[in-house]
Inverse folding.
């Protein structure tokens, strides 16, 4: 082969070999590698079977929140088995620095919902009557993505308090933290901030705290604030809420403390 023909031939071989590429990045695990059976939790894995009270009953008005974090950009959820009723709901949304995406209801067995964000929020909202358990599977796949979740907590006691940073000192730059309040004994907790010290600017575009109230099967943002002014308290009348904290790339402060009961 002369050099030109050789290059043309090699180029053809390269195109032919590169052509079939159905998977972008990491494929899903063939089967879930972890099992979660608690009401709510922080689940950080590439795949999991989430089984709550399968074959058993769940009390009326129960709320459970799972913060699910996959290593790849796409999180697929598939409902495998369900005893939930029409008035109950399993809801999924994505969380990132910019906020929380709209809720999607996982209602029928076999249904898939894919969340294109590394952090997904799964919320179980039981109606005013007892119900039966469910099982779903979660699989992470796709390209690796380095977005961080710098802090997280799931508060499930009837009342409590929380401080961030947990060990005092200053929070970091580029924080993206998420805290869920979902008491396992149904209630209507009121959230009160007792100390707030964030970088301040008029639109809270640098560092901010957002509070979301679970209402009408959605997380509604009720307040966004920064600086040192304590916001008015928020009652989670539907039994659950979220606190999301983000910071920009410069100027830090000492964070915040809240209590709820
Ligand atoms: C859900 O996704 C899986 C994996 O991609 C697929 O095999 C299955 O057919 C999907 N189910 C439905 C109902 O689309
Ligand atoms: C915060 O909670 C701890 C237990 O978790 C408790 O000992 C402490 O008294 C609480 N502090 C306030 C200010 O409520
Ligand atoms: C925060 O910024 C706002 C708007 O610039 C200003 O009105 C307010 O006084 C500031 N608060 C503090 C505590 O600096
Ligand atoms: Ca800052």
């Amino acid at each position: 082969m002369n050099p030109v023909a050789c290059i043309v031939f090699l180029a053809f071989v390269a195109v032919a070999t590169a052509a079939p590429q159905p998977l972008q990045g990491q494929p899903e695990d063939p089967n879930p590698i972890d099992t979660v059976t608690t009401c709510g939790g922080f689940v950080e894995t590439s795949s999991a079977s989430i089984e709550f009270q399968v074959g058993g009953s769940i009390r009326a008005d129960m709320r459970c929140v799972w913060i699910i974090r996959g290593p790849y950009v796409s999180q697929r959820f598939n409902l495998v088995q369900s005893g939930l009723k029409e008035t109950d709901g399993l809801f999924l949304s994505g969380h990132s620095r910019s906020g929380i995406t709209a809720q999607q209801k996982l209602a029928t067995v076999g249904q898939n919902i894919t969340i294109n964000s590394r952090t997904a929020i799964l919320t179980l909202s039981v109606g005013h009557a007892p119900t039966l358990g469910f099982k779903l599977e979660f699989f992470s796949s796709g390209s690796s993505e380095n977005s961080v979740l710098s802090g997280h907590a799931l508060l499930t006691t009837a009342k409590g308090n929380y401080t961030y940073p947990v060990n005092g000192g200053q929070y970091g730059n580029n924080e993206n933290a998420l805290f869920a309040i979902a008491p396992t004994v149904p209630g209507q907790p009121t959230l009160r901030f007792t100390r707030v010290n964030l970088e301040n600017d008029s639109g809270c575009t640098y560092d901010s705290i957002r509070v979301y109230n679970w209402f009408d099967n959605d997380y509604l943002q009720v307040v966004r604030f920064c600086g040192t002014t304590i916001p008015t308290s928020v009652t989670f009348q539907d039994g659950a809420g979220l606190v999301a904290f983000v910071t920009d790339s410069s100027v830090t402060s000492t964070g915040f403390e809240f209590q709820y009961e």
